[in-house]
Amino acid sequence: MIRVDVSLGDRSYPVLVGAGIRHELSAVLPPGTRRVAVVTNPDIPWSIETDLPSQTFAVPDGEHHKTMATVERLCSEFATWGLSRADCVVGVGGGIITDIAGFAAAVYHRGIPVVHVATTLLGQIDAAIGGKTGVNLPQGKNLVGAYWQPSAVLCDTDTLATLPHRERSCGFGELAKYHWLGGGNLDELPIDEQVAACVRIKAAVVAADEREGGVRATLNYGHTLAHAIETAGGHDLRHGEAVAVGLVYAAELAYRLGRIDEQAVSEHRRVIERYELPSRLPADLNHRELIELFGRDKKATRDVTFMLLDRAGTVGPVVGIDEAILRSTLEEIS
Ligand SMILES: NC(=O)c1ccc[n+]([C@@H]2O[C@H](COP(=O)([O-])OP(=O)(O)OC[C@H]3O[C@@H](n4cnc5c(N)ncnc54)[C@H](O)[C@@H]3O)[C@@H](O)[C@H]2O)c1
Ligand SMILES: [Zn+2]
Question: From atom 12 of ligand 1, which residue's Cα is the shortest distance away?
Fold first, then answer.
């Protein structure tokens, strides 16, 4: 078992990573917890056990259920069951479940404790860590939410065994970015150490910057193009796959701007290949549209901001990249 503590000012909470760690739930519930409200989806082949009275609140699978309506229904069901601040919500699932369970816990009775049991690779290295929770609106993803830190997070690597192949690859797309955020050659480590290394990096970034201003933006490495690809639509790339393409693009951009050498670009391509992820833009994407979308990325405050690597191995924001370079580099990865 590997333990990583997320420290936030005067508080901190543990993230436990390891095979079978879901069995440690009782040990991480807030002291004095009376009852447990398990939020999960019926398609997830893993559950948790507790000696405390508990009830399962099911949310159907899929991003289109990550809505205010689902949160309202959950909160009503919590109220019917009589859930109170002396109880704890436990989200068991991928990022969709932990986002919903975390948000419901944040707003129910103005905030009750939540523990995340993350069962996808993406959930373990990203979604369950950092305290961002929320749901989608018809107008866009994650538009309503709250920062609500969990009391603990359990990353049980056993649960990854049943993950569909594509979900696993998408997790590796997100994991790949941590190679350049201080993780180094994560691909050489066993899975629990890979997960723990990512958690450690994300925890350090969140500790330095809980509410997303400066350093938290480094977690967006590879994401400016990824978000544009996702918004443009009309292709089959999932988030983690789009991030993989975005990482290669960020490396090529940094190279063209003289920030890194060719070897660093090859290293990006090697890692993306190693995780069997795509490194090329799908053919049907319109480059002009992508460039317009860069400007609308919610992390772009004034001008188009890219998180790029430099020779010292640090990822940081770069503003005002010439449009001609953005365009020719898109052609390069097509
Ligand atoms: N809060 C954050 O900081 C943050 C960060 C990144 C992503 N997210 C959110 O996370 C969501 C994506 O999360 P995800 O990629 O984990 O997807 P997901 O939660 O949809 O899970 C993927 C699929 O795998 C299934 N599944 C989950 N665990 C399984 C297991 N162990 N075995 C078999 N099947 C399993 C799920 O039922 C689902 O069909 C998005 O909504 C995204 O917005 C949030
Ligand atoms: Zn991402």
Answer: 95
Q: Give yes or no for residue 130 CB within 6 A of ligand 1.
A: yes
Kindly give the number of the ligand 1 atom that is closest to the alpha carbon of 171.
15
Task: Name the pLDDT band for 310 (thresholds 50, 70, 90).
Answer: very high
Structure tokens at 332: 């390069």
- The band of 10, judged by pLDDT with boundaries at 50, 70 and 90, is confident
What atom of ligand 1 comes closest to residue 43's alpha carbon?
Answer: 37
Residue nearest to atom 33 of ligand 1 (CA): 163
63 carries an active-site annotation: no
- pTM score of the predicted model: 0.95
- Determine if ligand 1 sits within 6 Å of the CB of residue 45: yes
- Answer yes or no: is the C-beta of 76 below 6 A from any ligand 1 atom: no
Which pLDDT tens digit goes with each residue over 267-293? 999 999 999 999 999 998 999 999 999
Active site residue 109: no
46 in contact with ligand 1, CB cutoff 6 A: yes
Pocket test for ligand 1, best of 67, 71, 96 (most atoms within 8 A of CB): 96
Task: Please state the atom number of ligand 1 nearest to the C-alpha of residue 240.
Answer: 15
Q: pLDDT tens-digit profile of 193-227?
A: 999 999 999 999 988 876 666 778 899 999 999 99
- The whole-number pLDDT of residue 302 equals 55
